[in-house]
Amino acid sequence: MSLSRLIKLLFPAGRVAYVTHARGERTALCDLLDRLGPDAPTLCEGWTTADLAAHLVVRERRPDAMPGIAVKPLSGYTASVQRGVKERHPYPELVRLVREPGGAYALLPALDEAVNTLEFFVHHEDVRRAQPSWEPRELPADLDRLIWKRVAGGARLMLRKAPVGVVLHRLGGGVALGGPRHGARVEVTGRASELLMFCFGRQEHAEVELTGDPDDIARLRAASLGV
């Protein structure tokens, strides 16, 4: 029996309505991409909104090019595929392809939620925060808790390139550690969503308070962080 057939048997159409944070962020991002058009800036260096949309299409629909997103020696091929996707598809079609989950994510909402909640949250903010007069969002309490759970669990990975030890303090409660285990430390305090943006390499666009030696803070702000 095929996987798609099994999913249909377990979850017949209309029986279960999936409303996940990943789907919510995906939809909100696509609505914003539609409003802004293909040439708006993003926080992803060198990328317009069209480039970001093409990246997300490649990430979900071109498994041959996915390794290059994380593996630098393969990044040239991935960049070439991304340019091709951008050139072949009109911008509205790119956004449409992003709007509907591709690959296994279309069949397994739980997988989409596990893998894509932070991805789409961060890229939604990449677009929002690159526009004039953006303001922080008030997030649902369960999304805030989920983000903090992922940040706390992934701090060591996201901060592995930090030049100094990092102590993350979540407003409302919670502490997580990253970076070198010995030596100087910088305290980073903010809401869970802002700590996520910081740990994902958006240090200059995260609303956090940093405490520590000024030189250590400067080095941490300039570091290449993220997964």
From TrEMBL:
SUPFAM superfamilies: DinB/YfiT-like putative metalloenzymes. GO terms for molecular function: metal ion binding. It comes from the Bacteria. It holds the Pfam family MDMPI_N. Residues 22-150 form the Mycothiol-dependent maleylpyruvate isomerase metal-binding domain. NCBIfam families: maleylpyruvate isomerase family mycothiol-dependent enzyme, TIGR03085 family metal-binding protein. This is TIGR03085 family protein.
